Amino acid sequence: MKKAIGLIGATTAAAILAASAVAGPDDNNLVIEGEAMVSETAAPEGSPFDTIYSGWRFRSPETQVLETDDFENPGMVAVEYGYELWDTAAGSSGKSCADCHGAVEESMSGLRAGLPKWDEAAGKPLSLEHLINRSIKEHQGADGWKWESAEMLATTALIGLQSRGMPMDVETDGPMADWYERGKELYYARVGQLDMACANCHEDNWGNMIRADHLSQGQINGFPTYRLKWQGLGSIHRRFKGCMKQIRATPYKPGGDEFTALELYVASRGEGLSVETPAVRQ
Ligand code: HEC
Ligand code: HEC
After folding, report:
1. 243 catalytically annotated
2. How far is ligand 2, taken at its centre, from the CA of residue 137, in Å?
3. Ligand 1 test: best mutation among 39, 40, 201, most atoms within 8 Å of CB?
4. Which domains are delineated in the chain?
5. Cβ atoms < 10 Å from Cβ of 63
6. Is the CB of 228 inside a 6 Å radius of any atom of ligand 1?
7. How much of the chain, in percent, has pLDDT values that exceed 90?
8. Cβ contacts of residue 136 below 8 Å, gap of 6+?
């Protein structure tokens, strides 16, 4: 599975990507709590790949095993907190999420797999964090949560878990087409001091080692994801931000239009992979 480091022009970038041991994804099957996940599948239409893989397939066995068992998965602590929040009354309505939405297992089943999705009222696609904050502000009558707050991460993990095992499947046509194109442009745009694009790593060099890291295709089917490095959960937009910082680019704003468009495009590249929320990564 050797990949040529073709498109990298800048010397620094080439130095960073100087491939050491080269290895593709492993052959392990991801089974969570007895349920088989799709961690490898034929690439969706328009994809630059033949086969797409979950980031789980590039992790070490020690990290992989943490995701297979909910008692071992450190992200589940946040899910527990999410359940607490779901039942907590707040705001001028004096209601909890559960008072209006009922059981999260039913009302939020499938939502994560199709995000971001077009919202007529907003006139743009919305991510899970946007939908939650709008509901809190407009229906519950409370202040929204910060994008990367413990409350938001616990709730996105809880809601995402209700789609675990379902295939990623986002809308990309109709009013979403412009946003898809914008996300695609951002994915291929070289930025930062290293003058690199997302594609230079996750498309041209996946399977290779970058410093001590085994590069994946940069899929987002596991978010919010528990990262051992973060010692906690992080959002999709936090991950994007971190990757932009690695190439010394000024990251876009979490929750802003650029990252929402990028999220849509990256989600579309992962169509068919199972939602793994909350995934565990290095
Ligand atoms: C210099 C190389 C590099 C660039 C450029 C880069 N990334 Fe990454 N990215 C990494 C590395 C290394 C990791 C951690 C290993 C892995 O999962 O690939 C990572 C991880 C990720 C993950 C997490 C995958 C998972 O399974 O949890 C996502 C999503 C991601 N990147 C998206 C992006 C996006 C979007 C861009 C462009 C804004 C980008 N990356 C640019 C190196 C890069
Ligand atoms: C007073 C009632 C009320 C409360 C309290 C409430 N919501 Fe909502 N929520 C709604 C209504 C009404 C909608 C819009 C229905 C729709 O368009 O699907 C909605 C929509 C949503 C959506 C989008 C669902 C979708 O399918 O697009 C999410 C996610 C959500 N709420 C999460 C929450 C969370 C999390 C809480 C608690 C922190 C909460 N809501 C509290 C009434 C409420």
Report:
1. yes
2. 10
3. 201
4. 1-282 (1.10.760.10)
5. 16
6. no
7. 90
8. 90, 91, 142, 143, 144, 145
The ligand that comes nearest to the alpha carbon of residue 194 is 1
- Residue 269 burial (CB count, 10 A): 25
CA of 240 to the centre of ligand 2 (A): 26
Alpha-carbon torsion angle 18, 221, 161, 246, nearest 10: 40
pLDDT at 7 over 60: no
Of 53, 14, 16, nearest in space to 243 by CA: 16
Q: What does the DSSP assignment read for 84-137?
A: HHHT--BTTTTB-HHHHH--HHHHTTTTGGG-SEEETTTTEEE-HHHHHHHHII
Closest C-alpha to ligand 1, atom 25: 55
Ranking 16-25, 85-94, 181-190, 225-234 by mean pLDDT, the lowest is 16-25
Kindly report the pTM of this predicted structure.
Answer: 0.95
- In the reported structure, the alpha carbon of residue 86 is separated from the centroid of ligand 1 by a whole-number distance in angstroms of 31
Strand order in the sheet with 225-227: 232-234, 225-227, 280-281
202 close to ligand 1 (CB < 6 Angstrom): yes
| Centroid of ligand 2 to alpha carbon of 231 (angstroms) | 29
- The predicted pLDDT at position 211 comes to 85
The structure tokens 């996940």 sit at: 37
Distance CA 77, CA 175 (A): 38
Provide the CA 122 distance to its chain's centre, in angstroms.
22
Residues β-bridged to residue 126: 117
SS3 state at 254? coil
